[in-house]
Structures are given as C-alpha cells and as structure tokens.
Amino acid sequence: MLDVVLISLAAFFAGVLNAIAGGGSFLTFPALVFIGVPPIAANATSAVAVFPGYLSGAAGFLSEIKAFDRRELYWLLGLSVIGGVAGALLLLVTPSEVFSFIVPWLLLFATLLFAFDKKIRAWTKGDKGTNPIGKTAATLAVTTYGGYFNGGLGIVLLALFSGLGFRDMNLMNGLKNALSFILSGASVVTFLLAGIVYMREAAIMMIAATIGGYVGARLARKLPVPVIRAIVIMVGLSMTVVFLARS
To answer: Where in the cell is it found (predicted)?
Structure first.
C-alpha cells in the first residue's frame, strides 16, 4: 500500500510539473527505482505512466496550439515519432549498468540546458528562420533523447523551442506537451512490445498523472514564469544529486 501511495503521489505531481514546465519524470523515475523496479524498466514504466498526462496538459493550451502554424506543427510531430522510436530502440540495447551510470548525467544535462536557455537563445539569435537542416537535426536529437530517457524531456523541449526563437511561454508549454505525447506514444509502443513495462505500476501512475496534467495546465496560466523556472531547476538539481549519490 505504501508503494501505491508513493507512486500515485509521484505521478500526480509529475503530471502537474510536466504541464507547467516539464521535468515530471524527475519524480516518477526515482519513485519506481525506490520501490525496486530496475532502472531500464523504471525508465520505460515512467514513460508509460506520464504519457496520458501530456495529452491533458496539451488540452490546457489548446487555443495556443490551434493558432500555431499547421505545417510547422505537423513537421514537429512527424520528427517526434521518428525520434521517439529511435530513442526507445537505443534504450533496449543499452546495458543496465551503463544506463544506471549515465542517468545522473542525463538529469544534470537536462537541468542545465533549461537553466541556461536564455544563453542558448542568444547564441542562436532566436532566429526562427534558422537553416532547416539545423532545425531538423536539433529536433531529432531532442526527440531521440526523449525516447531514450524520458527524464527532463519537457525541459529539453523548452530549451529547443527557446533556441528556435519561440517567445510565448503558453505556446511553448502547449507544443511541449503535444510533442511529448506523440514521441512518448511512439516509445511507449516500443517498450510495450519489448515487454519491459511494469503494467500494474504503470496503470496506477497513468491515472494520477492524467489528473495532475490537467491541474498543472490550469496552474501554468497563473504562476509567474520565474517561479516555474525555479521549480523545474530545483527539482532537476535535487534528483541529479540523489542519483549521483546512488551511483
């Protein structure tokens, strides 16, 4: 019962965090590892758990998504499917020991990328007309990362959007949740076919994450952007320290 309560709370707040700014898997992944799920299976189960929460989170920003350029939206979604499958397949061939070693560094990478996204934006000069090849390569890299390691996916996507020149935080959050839903769906199917998902835990967490995603989308419109950023960075750094200590 304690395990059920723990993973339910982790999934609910992960759904809230994902809808607000990303980083929800910083909660679900360690919660699953804590109750005894092996790291690679925990990563796959975590991806399944937060998957529906992305949809409810995106629904909270439906007006912004509808106003976004359709061709660019379909381009982003298409690349998300490719990256999601590629990342999931990469995870399946990664030895457990290697994955456990690189987890804290992946967490740290995602957190620092989000923390310094303004510098990234300045470096790219916020130019939405950037070379299409560069934009495609960057998007594929980020979505492949998301398929491989769901932790910090929202953070990395927000950093990508900042680098591509997006400014509207509500639009960025809406796109982040939409892309997360699509690429996670692609990776989730791959994980399910591979049989590495803990279905009981995933089912419990999916319900809690979905509720949390809707609540988070409502909160995101009211919270100041600096508060959102501070929450994500604090959670990301905390989880990095925890996993460095474990390794």
So the answer is: Cell membrane
